[in-house]
Amino acid sequence: MSPTEPGLPKDPAEYRPKPLMGLGFWALIAFGVLCVLAGAAVALLGPKLLPTTPPAPAATQTSSALTPAPATLPIVVTSPTADEVARLNARIAMLENQGARTTEAAAAALAAAQLVEASQGSKPFGRELATLRAATPGLPELTRLARLAESGAPSRTALAASFPPYAAKAARRARKPAADADLGQRIAYVAAKVVTVRRVDETSGSTPDAILARAELALQEGQVAPALKALDGLPPKARDALAPWRLEAERRAQIDREVAALRARAVRALQAPGPAA
């Protein structure tokens, strides 16, 4: 190409390669990066630097400032009156007395139970009687039992076991003929002394055998007092034959009556209500 050709630049610097992007392009890129960084800073630091709730209205703040805070009320401790102290002391004394009575009643009931158990055997029970007397002195049953406790009385089982020989003797006495009896009646009575035949299956009627059978049945059931009552219907001679056995049976019946009264007294004392509050 000739230097004289029209349209070609004459300066050699104009033939160097031109940059692809100018200064304005890079300035635009820098501005965008700054915008991104500014947005990230706001997202990270905004919650820490800016308040999360809007401030209260001026009217509300003014009203709150004018309203006084509630004052703390003082705690007033009043001393109890003399009447209240007296009532409290009376209540405490009543509870103490009620507790003492309950304890005494329990101790008396225990002593009474021990006395009842000891009195059911055939041995003396003076020690158990003394224990109950110490717990509850002045009981009339204890006075009546004092003499009986020294020797005791046969048990109900022992009385039932010893009754048949005495009953046979009483049956023989009941059959003894009168002074004007004939020879046959006298011979039958003498034979009865060797072999005594007594009906034990006949419990109704007023014959000596029926009376003795009823008494024996009551003894087998442990009923001493009903047996003694049944034997009252025997003829005098038959009752005399039972005298030694009857003496022991009456001691047993009296012991049973007295200890039953003591047991009932102890139960009533435990069940007695306390004074009204």
Unreliable spans: 1-5, 55-66
Largest sheet: none
Shape: elongated
From the helix content, strand content and strand pairing, which structural class follows?
A: mainly alpha
Cα separation of the termini: 139 Å
Mean pLDDT: 73
* Rg (CA only): 60 Å
Helical content (DSSP H or I, runs of 4+): 55-70%
What is the assembly state of the chains in this entry? single chain
* Beta-strand segment tally: 0
N-to-C series of helices and strands: HHHHHHHHHHH
Q: How many helices does DSSP assign?
A: 11
Strand percentage, roughly? under 5%
What are the key terms here?
mainly alpha, disordered N terminus
Topology:
Blueprint: H1 23-49, H2 58-66, H3 82-119, H4 126-135, H5 140-151, H6 156-174, H7 183-194, H8 208-220, H9 224-231, H10 236-241, H11 243-271
Helix pairs in contact: 3-4, 3-11, 4-5, 5-11, 6-8, 6-11, 8-9
Q: Would you kindly provide a written description of the structure presented here, covering whatever features stand out?
A:
The protein has a domain at 156-252. Helices cover 66% and strands 0% of the residues. The protein contains eleven helices and no strands. The protein has helices at residues 23-49, 58-66, 82-119, 126-135, 140-151, 156-174, 183-194, 208-220, 224-231, 236-241, 243-271. 19% of the residues are buried.
